[in-house]
């Protein structure tokens, strides 16, 4: 798992594996720092999650909810890009409570639209995703989404 912040956008990239405690602590630290920088209001931020199926465990999710509750995190737009149908089903059900929406790799333009990012704003974000993808050894989701991004 990798976490990267670009201004008011958090990038969270999972492989097929669940994050370990160190990776999850990094995620929480970046989330809380962004919340502080946004005046304690995560509604002013957004999150882009890419996953090949890996996701936090129950205890980790509980930690994230507890941290986010302090800063209106349930209302922060969260776009999840995944080639995993199972992940997209879970995200869709979570979207009933959170401001979260799932996208297939072919829907990458819809993902950036949901997050309020134009093509010009999405280009440096995509470049960072490509860098993270190389560092993690390549994700199927990014490989599939690359074609859709290039056609945009």
What does the model show?
With 152 residues, the protein is α/β, with parallel strands linked by helices. 49% of the residues lie in helices and 17% in strands. It has 6 helices and 5 strands; from the N terminus they run ββαβαβαβααα. The protein has a 5-stranded mixed beta sheet with strand order 1-2-3-4-5, sandwiched between helices. Helix 3 links the parallel strand 4 (78-82) and strand 5. Helix 1 runs parallel beside helix 2. The longest helix is centred in the first third of the chain and has 17 residues, at 21-37. The mean pLDDT is 92.
Uncertain segments:
none
Cα distance spanning the termini? 27 Å
Strand order in space, largest sheet:
1-2-3-4-5
- Count of DSSP strands: 5
Strand content: 15-25%
Structural class: alpha/beta
State the major sheet.
5 strands, mixed
Radius of gyration: 14 Å
- Overall body shape: globular
Order of helix and strand elements from N to C terminus: EEHEHEHEHHH
Helix segment count? Answer: 6
What is the helix content?
A: 40-55%
| Mean pLDDT level | 92
